[in-house]
TrEMBL record:
Taxonomic placement: Bacteria, Bacillati, Actinomycetota, Actinomycetes, Streptosporangiales
DNA-binding region: 30-49
Protein name: TetR/AcrR family transcriptional regulator
Source taxon at top rank: Bacteria
Annotated ranges, domain HTH tetR-type: 7-67
Database matches in Pfam families: TetR_N
Keywords for this protein: DNA-binding, Transcription, Transcription regulation
Tagged with keyword Transcription: yes
InterPro entries for this protein: Homeodomain-like_sf (IPR009057), HTH-type_TetR-like_transc_reg (IPR050109), HTH_TetR (IPR001647)
Listed SUPFAM superfamilies: Homeodomain-like
Length: 194
């Protein structure tokens, strides 16, 4: 029996979901909206994406995040100074989320009530994906003794993930240079040491 859908169909559905999330908002987008935008039947969407709308939200977020992390890991390969990598990587991550409507809408109060369970499930996937991408940089930095010897790489990535999240959620509207100064003063010493 041939597969019910192809990878191409799934990508088409994810593209349509991303378009709808950007147009209607994540909380207000229905599977019917996504099916119409993809030019497919609702049944085809449900066969392709068995987890329904929640799976589509996660798929869009992970795809967008993967694209960002590809660029970030390339940058880290060329960055020798750990403090600069921490500061600029954090700044890039905050800017990325703020510029991505689908990702940013996870943080909008109107969406939170409708999507709290989705966000909770997605957070673990997002953290694992981030770890996979940046772990090699921090592993190398620790082997070269450019990180505090008493911290774990996994904990370092999680700490930065939490810092990035708080900077996004609690936007203090401070100038970028002030945010960089904040990161150098309070975040970098926790990872690199005094």
């Amino acid at each position: 029996m041939p597969p019910a859908t192809t990878d191409t169909t799934r990508e088409r559905i994810i593209d349509a979901a991303e378009e709808c999330f950007g147009r209607f908002g994540v909380a207000k987008t229905t599977v019917e909206d996504i099916a119409a935008a993809a030019g497919l039947s609702r049944a085809t969407v449900y066969r392709s994406v068995t987890g329904g709308r929640d799976e589509l939200i996660l798929a869009v977020v992970l795809r967008d995040l993967g694209r960002f992390l590809d660029g970030l890991s390339e940058r880290l390969r060329h960055e020798k100074a750990v403090p600069d990598a921490i500061v600029e990587g954090t700044m890039d991550a905050v800017a990325f989320v703020r510029d991505q409507p689908t990702v940013a809408q996870f943080l909008v109060p109107e969406a939170a009530g409708h999507m709290q369970a989705v966000v909770a499930r997605a957070a673990e996937h997002v953290l694992n994906l981030c770890c996979d991408y940046v772990r090699p940089y921090f592993d190398l930095a620790q082997r070269e003794r450019r990180l505090r010897p008493d911290i774990e790489v996994e904990g370092t990535v999680e700490f930065l993930f939490r810092i990035i999240t708080s900077l996004i959620v609690m936007d203090r509207d401070r100038p970028a240079d002030d945010t960089r100064r904040f990161l150098r003063t309070y975040v970098v010493p926790v990872i690199v040491g005094p």
